[in-house]
Amino acid sequence: MTQVMKENNRVNASLTALSVMSSYIQSINKPLIPSEFYIELCLAQHIISSVVDFESYGCSYGDENSLKKLLHYLQHNFFNKTVTPGYHSMILARKLMLKHKVEMGILSNGVRQVIFLGGGYDVRAFISSIKFPNVQFYELDRGQTRQIKLKALLNIPKEIGIRQTPVDIRINHTHIFNENFFCVDCDFLEDNLEEVLCANGFKKGSKTLVIAEGLTMYLNEKGVMQLLAGLANLLEEHDEFILSFIPKIINSFSEDMPIESRELHCFSLPPDEVSRFVTAYGFEVIHKNLFKDLLMLMGDINNAKKHENNLILKQEHYYTLRKCTHLLKASSKTIHEIPDYQFSIPFNCCA
After folding, report:
1. How many CB atoms lie within 10 A of CB 116?
2. Residue 346 lies in a domain
3. Residue 244 CA to chain centroid, in angstroms?
4. Which letter, b or e, does each residue of 169-179 get, where b requires 16 or more Cβ atoms within 10 Å of its Cβ?
5. Do you know which Pfam families this protein is assigned to (predicted)?
6. 345 domain residue, yes or no
7. Please, which contacts does 223-231 make with residues 24 or more away whose CB atoms are closer than 8 Å?
8. β-strand 208-212 against 240-245: which pairing, if any?
9. What is the pTM of this model?
10. CA 40, CA 298: separation in Å to the nearest integer?
11. Which residues contact 224 (CB under 8 A, 6 or more apart)?
């Protein structure tokens, strides 16, 4: 989840979003990294450096060693005590899977609109908007996380090598980058998704892909049901929706972690219950990527075995849903009947 609500209803920046991108940066920062990933790495580092007050950690701005020190700090104080074995591998695998989904959806399946629900500090939508100028990208978010990210995107250093275009800032606070990346100020549970998107050029009926990365566990059951119902009304037959569910709620935190950043897990769904749950809203599960399988793909075999043999470890499974009206058999599918989504690792980044 990309924002946290405090008791006074102010939306705080998300430590989870910061931690996810910090993990991704560490994972792709490899020798001989391909040029497209190098630009992505530099942009991600720029955004993360905009998030944190370096001075509070004894660091200085623009210092690569300071950034490494910050990432180590986050690793030590957040990942080690609150997350799970193989977390870095899983974050990288899911980022690569989503990259592949977006690009293959556009190149092979005619996708012309991609919606990211709660983009956090992720750079996929921005980078993809440059690569695919004829596709519309939407990122729906709000609060401090969105404001920090917008400020970073408005001030990208020239040395990163990204061609800057004029940014269109609309009266509804939507920021449009590259003429096709719409950063929309939106609470997608409270606001009418269709109205908000159509006000920003969304074309209902045009082939659409929706991505909710690491989101549902921070919603309650009513919120998840509301999200599925809203997307069922928005999407057309054969449009796809990628989301994740945790199979079990396990909340634990570092004692050093700020109380306002303790983003509690509220909703879980075991793999064998996913098909039944989503078919009630007109969706069929067409692909899966289970936690341990993502670790295996990354070559993180030891941690994959740990998760296979220890069900109390934190896990997060990804599913691709397709809007479908013929759902007679879909609700009875077991997890073993759902094929894995296949994608390749584009460079030497395995564990």
Report:
1. 27
2. no
3. 10
4. eeeeebbbbbe
5. LCM
6. no
7. 223/189, 223/266, 223/267, 224/267, 225/281, 226/189, 227/117, 227/188, 227/189, 228/278, 228/281, 228/283, 229/281, 230/188, 230/193, 230/194, 231/193, 231/281
8. parallel
9. 0.88
10. 20
11. 216, 267
Total domains in the chain come to 1
Beta bridge pairs of residue 119: none
In a domain, 261, yes or no: yes
Amino acid identity at 319? Y
In a domain, 316, yes or no: yes
Domain that includes residue 217, residue range: 3-337
Closest CA to 67 of 100, 95, 42, 99: 42
One DSSP character per residue, 4-67 reads: EE-TT--EEEPHHHHHHHHHHHHHH--TT--HHHHHHHHHHHHHHHHHS-GGGGT--TT-HHHH
Query: At 96, which CATH number?
Result: 3.40.50.150
Q: Tokens in use for 51?
A: 């998030």
